[in-house]
Amino acid sequence: MTSIHSDLYRKMIELLVEARKDVGVTQVELGKRLGQRQTFISKVELGERRLDAAEFIMMCRAVPIDPYTVMQKAEESSE
Fold it and tell me: Which domains does the chain have, with CATH numbers?
């Protein structure tokens, strides 16, 4: 099993998407903040593309949300 399919990874992405929507940032805007296209953001959010640790932190900060908070909440919900 790869980490892209783990419950913890999926929950982290779910929380990141939720935070993005809560602050009113579109996929297009987030992509611009990261120097990426909207399709990159979409693939990440749909689970079609895996984020490495550095990309995850950069994406969180671009939303902005604290990456450590996202990880902690995801871990708590998967216990």
Answer: 3-77 (1.10.260.40)
